[in-house]
Amino acid sequence: MTVWDDLTGQDEAIAVMRAAASGRDNVADRGMTHSWLITGPPGSGRSNLAYAFATALLSPGTPDGDRATQRQVEARTHPDLAVLSTERVIISIDEVRALVSSSQFSPSVGRYRVMVIEDADRMTERTSNVLLKALEEPPERTVWILCAPSEADLLPTIRSRVRTVRLKVPSVADVAALIERRDGVDPQTAERAARHAQSHIGMAHRLATNEEARRRREGTLELALGIRTVSDAVLAAASLLEVAGADAKAITEERDAEERESALRSLGVEPGGTIPPALRSQLRQLEEDQKRRATRSLRDGIDRILVDLLSLYRDVMMLQLGSASELVNVELRGRLEALSAHSTPAATLSAMDAIATARERIDGNVAPALALEAMLTTILRGTAARKGTDL
Fold first, then answer.
1. What are the backbone dihedrals phi and psi of residue 199, each rounded to the nearest 5 degrees, phi first?
2. Residue 88: is its pLDDT beyond 80?
3. Which three-class secondary structure state does DSSP give residue 27?
4. Residues 342/218/371/87 CA torsion (nearest 10 deg)
5. Is 222 left (phi over 0), alpha (psi -120 to 50) or beta?
6. Could you give the CA distance from residue 256 to residue 254 in angstroms, rounded to a whole number?
7. What phi and psi, each to the nearest 5 degrees, are found at residue 160?
8. Which of 96, 311, 348, 362 lies most in the core, judged by the most C-beta atoms within 10 Å?
9. What is the overall mean pLDDT for the chain?
10. What pLDDT, in 10s, does the model give residues 14-33?
């Protein structure tokens, strides 16, 4: 077993990084370098590849990673590994400054000191310039690994100083095989989860292992298919927001409790005990961080819902065009065929545009309820127009 085994559908990227870790890259002037950028769509495995590469670099004498180093990297406890990941909307400049400062240390036990920044696209321009200085003059044995959806999400000056490895969307079959092997679910559940997640590995895992997540997704599509009037659209928008909130709460609630318990334990406070006034500021900071994470989790939950709605209209479009592509929501084929028969490709494309606009508005801090209402009302108007009826 190697550190690369759980990376599915990315053979080319693995070959590049494995060769670099082993020092046997045969492409002239494209071997090991001090800074890397891993790009790819959400769920393609950017951070998984980053940590696999980090393990290979930190493991003594093998590009496939040894088990002891892999356990340390997974726990983020390796002395030569530093990680910056955020569950907030923006990575702060102070966080990057602290990481840049720690990058100046020499490796203590391995060949390299490895610095990983997940979601590097969440840095502002000012924050990115702090990182740029570190990339321009890195210590000899320090390796930076950045992750972002695309090169365009980073400053041109940073892009010019990194070697980019691009990931592709893995196939449904590849993701299903990974979920089946890693999570121990049956082949049918794994295939359905991978298909509904549209090859997003993290979401496929959640759909395969969490029945409540599957029910929430089914409810989202039922809401969309049941809209007939403007009042339906307004009520559906509120319901979708409620579903997203429940999904976000399910993801963060358990983790918040574990973090608080761990923090109290580290401060020497017994469960249920009184918190000394001198320690309350530390817990307030934790609570503020958890609130920021909840905000991002809610945004992510809304975006998941919108992606699911896009898959619905994508399927309708495939049926209207007579495409041989497999449907994402094959279980709803009958209802999708009925919807496609009473619509046109132009109207379906307009619905997909409305969803894309809603995603942009929410990303731009428009109130989610208003963005969802506008989206569903626009889709409904398109439906009424093609039927020649009045709202």
1. 70, 15
2. no
3. coil
4. -150
5. alpha
6. 5
7. -75, -10
8. 348
9. 87
10. 999 998 988 744 443 346 88
Q: Which of 119-133, 181-195, 247-261 has the lowest mean pLDDT?
A: 247-261
In angstroms, how far is CA 342 from the centroid of its own chain? 35
Residue type, 53: F
Q: Which amino acid is at 63?
A: P
Distances (CA, A) of 282 to 34, 214, 287: 36, 37, 9
Cα-based distances in Å from 221 to 106, 109, 124: 53, 52, 35
The 8 Å CB, 24+ separation contacts for 321-326 are: 321/345, 326/172, 326/195
Report the pLDDT value the prediction gives residue 324, as an integer from 0 to 100: 87
Task: Kindly state the percentage of the chain with pLDDT values over 90.
Answer: 55
Buried b vs exposed e over 152-176: b needs ≥16 C-beta within 10 Å? Answer: ebbeeebbebbbebebebbebebbb
Mode of pairing for the β-strands spanning 142-148 and 163-166: unpaired
Q: Compute φ and ψ for 365, nearest 5 degrees.
A: 75, 20
CB 172 within 8 A of CB 43: no
| CB contact at 8 A, 168 and 179 | no
Q: What is the Rg, in whole angstroms, of the alpha carbon atoms belonging to the chain?
A: 23
Q: Are 228 and 235 in contact (CB under 8 A)?
A: no
Q: What is the rounded distance in angstroms from the CA atom of residue 380 to the CA atom of residue 152?
A: 34
Pairing between β-strand 35-39 and β-strand 81-84 as defined by DSSP bridges = unpaired
Query: Which pair of structure tokens corresponds to residue 338?
Result: 């009925």
Identify the three-state secondary structure at position 142.
strand
Q: Residue 310 is encoded by which pair of tokens?
A: 């896009």
Q: Is 104 exposed, middle or buried (0-12, 13-18, 19+ CB in 10 A)?
A: exposed
Find out whether 157 and 140 touch, Cβ atoms under 8 Å: no
DSSP labels, 202-259: HHHHHHHH-HHHHHHHHHHHHHHHT--SHHHHHHHHHHHHHHHHHHHHHHHHHHHHHH
pTM of the model: 0.76
Q: Which CATH class is domain 11-166?
A: alpha beta
Q: How far apart are CA 215 and CA 21, in angstroms?
A: 43
- Domain ranges across the chain: 11-166, 172-209, 230-387
Tally the residues of the chain: 391
